[in-house]
Amino acid sequence: MFWIAMTAMVFSKLLAVGSPYCLKVAVNALSGSTLNMKMAYYGVAGFGAAWALSVFLHEGWNNLMAQYLRDGIKRLSEQVFEHVHSLDLLFHKTSTKTTLFAVNKALDSIENGMRFVSGFIFPLILEFGLISATVGLYFGPLYLANMWGMLALYSIFTKRYSSTW
To answer: What is the model's pTM?
Structure first.
């Protein structure tokens, strides 16, 4: 299930990054000396289809990842439940409600961390890599280095500015 979800995410991001090229085809068909309405229609239709498929795959990826994480947390909770019940009676006599509360908080923290990593970090790294590859391919390494430098400066500025408040 994990690899199916990751495949859906990769294709979703590829379509999202690649769909503007369909608009490029439409604009090129409408400009210049020859007007090709058929290619313009195909370009707009291709953009819409690519974008719709991208959204469909992204939502499918969200659904599969939520199910995958839910199953993983369920298995972990079952293991914790079995472990707590296998502990000796002295532990249960001396422990308080806060012990089980801490276990539940730990499970919630693990779930939130996994949701953050799978829902934000993985797609961000993939999309940034795709955009960097596209910029590097079409505009060259100098423009790509400029983009990375500006992103680094923006990140430093944002960090410093937000920490002053």
So the answer is: 0.67
